[in-house]
Amino acid sequence: MDGFPRVLEVPHSRIPMAIPAGMSRVEFFNSAANLKNLTEENGLLRSPEDFLLYRKLIGHSLEFDASIILDTSQRILNPMGRPVRRDELTRRQRWVWSRMTQTIFQYMLETYPDPGQALVMCGEASLDPTWPLSKPGVPSIRMIHNHFIVFPQEDLRSAPPAAMDDVNLTDGGHHGLFLNQLSTVYRRFLETLQLEILKPISTQESQVRATGYPQGLPSWHAQGDMKNLDNPRFWDEYDLILKGFLDFYRAFFAQVSSRGAPVPAESYFPEQVENILYFNNDFSQVAKQVRDRIKLDPSFANELRWRPAYKQLLYRDDMGRLIVTISQNSVGNAITELLGIVVQRQENETAYRAAEPRLIEKLLTVRERLRLADLGTPIHTSAWPDGRFVPWEEQQPIRSRRRTDAVESGLEDV
Predict the structure, then answer these.
(1) Is the torsion defined by CA of 401, 19, 9, 4 positive or negative?
(2) Which of 45, 171, 272, 410 is most buried, taking the most CB atoms under 10 A from its CB?
(3) Which stretches within 52-164 are classed as H helix?
(4) What is the mean pLDDT of residues 213-217?
(5) pLDDT for the residue 399
(6) Could you check whether the bond before residue 214 is cis, i.e. omega within 30 degrees of 0?
(7) Which burial class, exposed, middle or buried, applies to 391 when counting CB atoms under 10 A from its CB (0-12, 13-18, 19+)?
(8) pTM for this prediction
(9) CB neighbours (10 Å) of residue 265?
(10) CA-to-CA distance for 45 and 31, rounded, in angstroms?
(11) Which is it for the CA torsion 175, 180, 185, 191, positive or negative?
């Protein structure tokens, strides 16, 4: 593979918002007031289960870029109390989450059928709720979210190289603890998962040609590729991979925290944890090394994420195969960087507005698919008040009426 990580500059529009004095941007972004504004300004569709599909105004790509979050901000006011991982969802929520993901990803594959022309991906990110809200680089919305992105391959091939030591390129084996020191036992543990559709594949086989990524991550090829998106078994196995990752993460940090800790009570595969992980000398040795360092190095200790945090990707490789991979989450790294794409967002109103109509047309089309599948109710915003895109300059009367309504209702300061 002759690729290298790339830097893409992506224009975005200015977001007109005033952050109260004394608050960091991350703290404000996680507030219930900001999430209400997100819905009103960029919301596309909401399901009865509180899933919100929205336009990524400061996003990763002008080709296709949307996200789903479980927006419980209006009924769970404590940001630390909101679900941040798929395993924290109810069975009904997981079912709807999978159907929405399947519907959107299938639309992306049909709209961009040629893998040589477009990199199609979606990535679910969680963050450990023990991350401080004010820490630089912490994802801006503290709840489970899924990103849907398309990159033109030509843009990737022509993009300049990223620095090979960029701290956000966390999946190369030199940043990830699991891959750096525990690769053998990690892979052996994951091989015990009872998978029928997803088959292990080396990252050397599944790398994106333009970037040479992912690197070092455990990966699986979906046998049958696109047709499996309609198969509930595929999504069950997608969950199994997450469960295996969570077991490994919890087991390791249980041993880091307390020497000789028992198998975590919430383990999905307790026998494998005990017989493969806890009986492995390398596993115990690395846990001891981390434990000893924590006692001496406060800066190292502050970087530890004690609860599971991950990024799980589904993407189409250059051969048209559907690939699943998973990584530890790290402060600062975006979902795209697991595939070697470092996005630098640049405020450029002119460039964004030029691309906006075409982007919104696709988002409204995929929203209609979700509506027809009874997966949610459309949201009407100033940019698409009646299901069609309205240019920025024509939105001002609509925005003025909304401000008047807010003043009359006493909500002008919200």
Answers:
(1) negative
(2) 171
(3) 91-111, 153-158
(4) 87
(5) 58
(6) yes
(7) exposed
(8) 0.90
(9) 7
(10) 20
(11) positive
